[in-house]
């Protein structure tokens, strides 16, 4: 799929536990020389085939599950990444969830409740396009939203303080560690888009008729809080990248590289597990022999 040199470059995008993240130190576009859009497309097609093979073994083994988290600023290409990377998977074993503002029912539960319901079963892959991290990103920029959760002791924005966010990071780490210890492979991707590229994509949504449906004036309002979101992302990624649930900061200005890098990480991490078809026991082996005999007598 990719060369060892490519994987070494992609692995540099992984955030090691304890790293204090400054997003200015991470590229938003592909800085290598070996790949281009055409080559990446061919590699991605090969990658989809490899991922499909691993998915079939994952499903047959029925031991692990995979949770893929995609987070990004608006227009970073999360939807297209899902479409291009996951198209090779068997849809019966893949679930895609896109989390919007919580409903009244969801607000009557703790903030992780709806995300827990969307976790993959054994042998399955779940993709969360936006995720439980919205609860330390959007709510970090707009702390007044936390008040809708009706949390005991949190009755004013002033109480949504540094101590509150530190506690919430710890809750997320416990949540992810628990599901990891019970067989869920967690891979978290932040699609790192530059502000200039976001502007370009917003203008395309305004100027191109087939992209009008993607445009929302609310996205422009959130763009004015760019620095606040970046700070929120930096703190969230720094606090929650763990060996059992690593973050990858993926350049997102070049969509062709974004898709290839994400597919490469997924493939590499699942391959390490050495997932294979279940072994054949004596009872099944006997049934196979008997089955052949019965069919040959027809």
Brief write-up:
With 298 residues, the protein is of the alpha/beta class. Helix content is 48%, strand content 11%. The protein has a six-stranded mixed sheet with strand order 1-6-5-2-4-3, sandwiched between helices.
Can you describe what's shown?
By secondary structure, the protein is α/β, with parallel strands linked by helices. The chain has a single domain (4-296), classed as Rossmann fold (3-Layer(aba) Sandwich), CATH 3.40.50.300. It has twelve helices and six strands. Strands 1-6-5-2-4-3 form a six-stranded mixed β-sheet, sandwiched between helices. The protein is globular and about 75 Å long.
Annotation keywords:
single chain; 298 residues; alpha/beta; Rossmann fold; six-stranded mixed sheet; 48% helix
Query: What oligomeric arrangement do these chains adopt?
Result: single chain
Lateral strand order in the biggest sheet: 1-6-5-2-4-3
Classify the fold: give the CATH topology: Rossmann fold
Terminal CA distance reads 45 Å
**Count of alpha and pi helical runs:** 12
The backbone outline, from C-alpha atoms, is globular
What is the CATH superfamily classification? P-loop containing nucleotide triphosphate hydrolases
Please give the share of residues in helix.
40-55%
Structural class: alpha/beta
- Poorly predicted ranges: none
Mean pLDDT: 92
Integer tally of domains: 1
Radius of gyration: 21 Å
